[in-house]
Design brief:
Shape: elongated
Number of helices: 26
Strand content: 15-25%
Largest sheet: 6 strands, mixed, barrel
């Protein structure tokens, strides 16, 4: 018997899969046919490596963006906090209704009243931060600490992995000092020694016993840098003074209690403080929000923006993939004609082409996941440790399995969905050729044009967001912080009670340290302040003005500085005098105020006015002797706060920050400054070493916008590249389909200019439509970005104009190669091809 198949048998074979679907057992044969189509798809991709590489890399780019950003979003915004029943945990704060804003923390007496009266809460606990000098774990070092009231860890549902929790007795005065280590501190400072429980160390020269180690997965983002946890030991002032607000508070809702009920109940308690302490609590208000909301609230707008940008880029990548599949379908029209002519059904061809789309998507998705892993590590690398530890789950962040599975499924679904149209078109073209109709093929450009319009529109949105954010960062960095930032180094030193038990010894060390630092090589001058500007930390308080009948307490920041601080920082004197050597401890009490306070409270004329502060025993009056320029202590995008400056000689602190102005690179004086301090006391650690530009870059207002700008720039560049590829593919396909038409027109006398504009019109019309659509969408995006923009409107003409110009340039470049190909079509070549 002959082994050569007959024509009839070939026709039956080609049509067989379609008939098999109607026969018994066809469902069992479907996986075998799908596997055959899958293998065929792999062979076809090998024969077209250019198409395969373009399609795979396009999808990989979109996958990398969406997986990396959504992993970050899921970890910060959506993933539960690592505590028992985290949805019942709340942050409780107290605000002063007389002021526009306040820190939100509360005094210890207020905390006790809230805890005793709140029936909607199963418990409340307080916490605060700080730092201590640690001795007993290597070289003396300054470590961040968290102090908590009794029941804090139990409220979170956390038990130490080693040792025990704090007890009420540990909070009492006179009880032995105890500490609990974080897992990170246990491993880095104590070598993960399981016998660390019971070990003695010293904190600020006080013997302290380690009683436990927290679990490795435990983190408390609101005090993310805390290495050692301590029981809250309060001073007499902290225990008694209602106006001394220093404690942050969390609570847990009782089962069945609602957030609204807790707000109402604590609001009644807060209102009652007007009867207990009318001087300091005339209009107290309680605020209750979810603990997770209190942590992630400030970055929610940023992450929402990045999520939208990543989603846009993913859609651009999918649209580009669809364009590639459409173009490939056009080139396979003859193949479809042959298969249809021997009996294959259009549905059979569509199924094969969809499976081929999935074949392309699989390697693209896998490469995208790997790239997403790298992108996550890169994103974490640009986040300073202070910000990284202030959000949950970022310590060891990697691609989340839930995000990976979702994104992988999304990529396959997108490939299937976006492959449906080109697959259907390819089958339809084959049918058209079977019936001898070529005109429908040449005119079939609606879907490719729609994909290009979509790509261009989303690329314009990404570019507009990048332009607006870039201008915001530029405007923000142009804001003067009120002092000269160049060649300024900052660092911190804290004395210890055992070596400096009284104020005089601290003052002597302060004066000697300043003198030696100023004499160090490369140092021009040095001064001190209790808290460096733009670090978002520092003391605050209230004062009353002598002679004012209403006795209104005025809120202000409190800063303690050396006499030469303003000269070293380049802060101008606006009236009166600065501190000098005569402002000693026994001299009349004097202060300086900044311009904001002088204008708001004294009408610009505060000199010789006297003010008193509740936190000083006896409430002595301090005379205002000078006005200085505003310096920004909080954020560059906020108005300067009122500030009162005290001379260091009259209000001595155990710790102080040193600001050093150097002759050259600030980094070059770090070691000479360290050596100067070691020459006085080698036991004191020098920490917090940063240049002023570094502090500005890591400040919250700059950091949020700069990170957004960096990521948006990457997304926009990728989106622009994909849009350019889409425009190129559209024109290339159009030129290939119109080769015969162009040749005929040339034969009939069409000029080069007519051919050029005819080809360009086909590419620039969808670009113009996409640009217009993108600009309209950018206006909506700008409104959504208002919380991140600074000094720029949502419809900034310069930013949007730059986007249009860039889009025109890139589109023109993408049109060049297809245009040159069209201009070199010869009539004889076109007719021969026909």
């Amino acid at each position: 018997m002959s082994s050569v198949p007959s024509a009839a048998r070939l026709r039956r074979s080609a049509a067989a899969p379609d008939r098999e679907l109607m026969e018994p057992g066809s469902v069992r044969r479907w996986p075998r046919d799908a596997a055959r189509d899958f293998a065929l798809g792999l062979r076809l991709l090998k024969r077209r490596p250019g198409f395969a590489a373009s399609a795979v890399l396009t999808l990989a780019l979109g996958m990398a963006a969406v997986t990396s950003v959504f992993t970050l979003v899921y970890a910060v915004l959506l993933r539960d906090l690592p505590y028992a029943e985290p949805d019942r945990l709340v942050s409780v704060s107290e605000l002063d209704g007389r002021r526009e804003s306040a820190s939100g923390n509360m005094s210890y007496p207020d905390f006790l009243d809230y805890r005793a009266g709140a029936q909607t809460l199963a418990g409340m606990a307080g916490y605060t931060g700080g730092s201590r000098t640690l001795v007993g774990a290597g070289n003396p070092d300054r470590v961040s600490i968290v102090q908590v009231t009794d029941g804090f860890l139990a409220l979170l549902g956390v038990r130490p992995a080693l040792g025990r929790d704090f007890q009420v007795a540990d909070m009492q005065d006179g009880a032995p000092l105890v500490a609990i280590l974080t897992d990170r501190s246990w491993r880095s400072r104590f070598g993960a020694d399981p016998a660390v429980v019971g070990r003695a160390v010293t904190l600020n020269s006080l013997p302290t016993t380690i009683i436990g180690v927290l679990p490795g997965e435990f983190e408390f983002p609101l005090r993310g840098l805390g290495e050692i946890w301590l029981p809250a030991r309060m001073s007499q002032q902290q225990r008694e003074r209602r106006y001394y607000h220093w404690l942050d508070v969390i609570g847990r809702l009782r089962p069945g209690a609602t957030m609204d009920a807790a707000r109402a109940e604590l609001g009644v308690i807060a209102a009652g403080f007007a009867n207990i302490d009318p001087e300091h609590h005339p209009v107290a208000r309680a605020r209750v929000i979810g603990l997770q909301d209190s942590i992630v609230g400030p970055v929610r707008p940023l992450l929402t923006l990045l999520s939208a940008a990543a989603a846009f880029l993913f859609v651009v990548a999918c649209a580009n993939l669809a364009g590639l599949l459409v173009a490939r379908g056009t080139t396979r029209a003859r193949e479809m004609q042959v298969r249809l002519s021997i009996g294959a059904a259009p549905s059979r061809l569509v199924r094969q082409l969809l499976i081929e789309s999935v074949v392309v998507a699989l390697p693209g998705a896998l490469i995208g996941l790997l790239a997403g892993h790298v992108a996550v590590r890169a994103i974490l690398a640009i986040i300073p440790s202070a910000q990284r530890t202030s959000f949950p789950h970022l310590g060891a962040l990697d691609l989340d399995p839930a995000v990976v599975i979702t994104a992988f499924g999304l990529a396959l679904a997108a490939a299937f969905a976006f492959g449906l149209v080109p697959a259907w078109q390819a089958a339809r073209r084959g049918q058209a050729l079977t019936h001898g109709d070529r005109s429908g093929i040449a005119r079939d450009t609606v879907a490719p044009r729609a994909f290009v319009v979509l790509q261009v529109a989303l690329a314009v949105v990404l570019l507009a967001g990048t332009a607006l954010m870039g201008k915001s960062v530029r405007e923000l960095l142009s804001v003067s912080p009120g002092f000269e930032t160049d060649h300024v180094l900052t660092l911190r030193v804290n004395t210890t009670p055992d070596r400096y038990p009284d104020v005089e010894r601290v003052r002597t060390f302060h004066a000697d340290a300043l003198a030696r630092i100023a004499a160090a090589p490369g140092v021009v001058a040095a001064a001190t302040i209790n808290q460096v500007p733009l670090t978002g930390v520092g003391n605050s308080g209230t004062f009353v003005v002598e002679g004012r009948a209403d006795g209104t307490e005025v809120p202000t920041l409190i800063r303690t500085v050396s006499a030469n601080y303003f000269d070293v920082m380049g802060i101008p004197t606006l009236g009166g005098r600065l501190f000098d050597a005569t402002d000693r401890a026994a001299a009349p009490r004097v202060v300086l105020v900044n311009r904001t306070l002088a204008d708001a409270i004294f009408g610009g004329k505060p000199i010789d006015e006297r003010i008193a502060f509740p936190f000083f025993d006896g409430r002595p009056f301090w005379q205002i002797v000078g006005i200085v320029g505003d310096e920004q202590f909080d954020e560059l995008d906020e108005r300067p706060s009122p500030v009162v400056y005290f001379p260091y000689a009259q209000t001595t602190d155990n710790g102080f920050s040193v600001v050093v102005r150097s002759a050259g690179d600030p980094a070059s004086v770090v070691e000479p400054v360290r050596a100067a301090i070691r020459s006085l006391d080698a036991s004191l650690p020098v920490f917090g070493v940063q240049t002023m530009p570094q502090i500005i870059d890591q400040s919250n207002s700059v950091f949020r916008r700069r990170v957004a700008l960096m990521l948006l720039t990457g997304f926009a560049a990728a989106g622009l590249l994909l849009a350019a590829v889409g425009i190129y593919g559209l024109l290339s396909q159009a030129v290939a389909q119109r080769t015969r038409e162009i040749g005929v027109r040339r034969a009939l006398g069409a000029t080069t200019s007519q051919i050029r504009w005819g080809v360009l019109a086909g590419g620039l019309r969808p670009v113009a439509a996409g640009t217009l659509l993108g600009l309209l969408a950018s206006l909506i995006l700008g409104q959504a970005m208002q919380g991140l923009l600074f000094g720029v409107g949502a419809a900034d003409p310069a930013a949007l104009g730059a986007v249009v110009v860039l889009m025109v340039i890139v589109s023109g470049a993408a049109c060049l190669a297809p245009l040159q190909r069209a201009l070199h079509v010869e009539p004889t070549e076109a007719l021969r091809g026909d």
